[in-house]
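Sequence, structure tokens quoted for completeness.
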Amino acid sequence: MWRTLALLLRRPGELTRQYLRGRRKHYVLPLRLYLTISVLVLLAVRVSTLLDPSTPQPALQVDKGETPKIELSVGGASMQVGIKPGGEGFECRNVPAAVCKRLEQRLGIGPAALANDTSGLKARLTDAVGPMMFVLLPCFAAGLAIAYRNRRLRYTEHLVFALHLHAFWFLMLGVTLLPLGGLQLVAWLAVPVYTWLALRRVYGGRWWTQALRASVLATFYFTTLVTATMFAALWALLA
């Protein structure tokens, strides 16, 4: 594991190249590496949420004179669920009608019911991240296969790169949890830099074609991520 982590962090993309060249006994298998890192980091996120009383909860307004509501925003997408002004009925914005009806049945129309249900919403959202990312991984690998279809790589080889890259992303998420000033910014900046260098090492090509492919891939993955996150938020509300 330590040899694998050292190569993963020291030389972006080299771990994937070594695996594709057949040097598989020297390093942890891609799926095992990803599962180990993601589970540990998500566990750390859950623990830090429980231990930190100042951690902000999803927006819930229950002030006197205002109607209670839940608001979830991801990127440019947002979803609002709450009580209509005056307490007359249930309303949803940016939510399908069938889902809104199920939410009304699930949450009820009373402010107390809405407030009680949101107490565990953040924990359920955290629990949904792991399965959500595991579903998104094949989508990212499919995007790689389309963007680099002229490289004549099998889908499973793109999936290996996706596993290694997501393992690094989870490591950086874990770094942001450390109580060290400025380290969070370094971790967030490392993600795009590392991704670019890893793509260059594994797939090669001219820098401008690489930049074009990376831009298309980033747009595709961000859209997929936003959609999946909204579905995860709905699942957390309905769970």
In short: Residues 55-65 have pLDDT under 50 and may be disordered. The chain has two domains: 2-53+122-238, 59-118.
